[in-house]
Amino acid sequence: MLPKYKRILLKLSGESLMGEGNYGIDHKVISQYAYDIKAATDLGVQVAVVIGGGNIYRGMNEKETGIERAQGDYMGMLATVINGMAMQSGLEKVGLYTRLQSAIKMEQIAEPYIRRRAIRHLEKGRVVIFGAGTGNPYFTTDTAASLRAIEIQADVILKGTRVDGIYTADPEKDPTATKFETITFSEVYQKSLNVMDMTAFTLCQENKLPIIVFDMNRPGNLLQVIMGKNVGTLVKA
Predict the structure, then answer these.
(1) DSSP letters spanning 40-74
(2) What is the pLDDT of residues 53-70, one digit of tens each?
């Protein structure tokens, strides 16, 4: 069977890299993600990745940190580059060629983000990791993922979480919550469901870019999603 999607953007949360810990990066999680991504690239799928920074620093709460929002957001962007470097290392250990591109210039460790260069890397079979968010404060890595996915003309955003889809309520708190197999952008608005932040979600809706929310922590799920299996929840126009 051929994969359903030829070019994907995989959005991972920083918190997912912690594994069972409370902070930092769990090498076992990195390893699992790397093998899952390799399984996708072995089928010829072009993979770009955006990772959050919440496992290292989350700067949105100015009252708690005492650091102004813009400064905290820049600190969070640097955290995403650290995660990107860790993911790059994990991917290279399983034999993948990768490029880390940063929206904030740091030439010693990452290429600057250049759209055409990123697309060329993908066409050559390299995994491209986009670090430092959009390069601007007040925007989340969800927004960065949506923006980059649109720029590189990805077929879909795959949002890997620790929950296996979108539910009527938080399934970790409400045992009666039921899962959606598919849902439209309009229904997400109407039901006030939390899929992505509103800026990111609106970008996807306006550009008719589908989103699939799925459990990335289950080995093999990424490949199942790419093959078009009924895994996670599909958000479409």
Answers:
(1) HHTTT-EEEEEE--TTT-----HHHH-S-HHHHHH
(2) 999 997 667 778 889 999
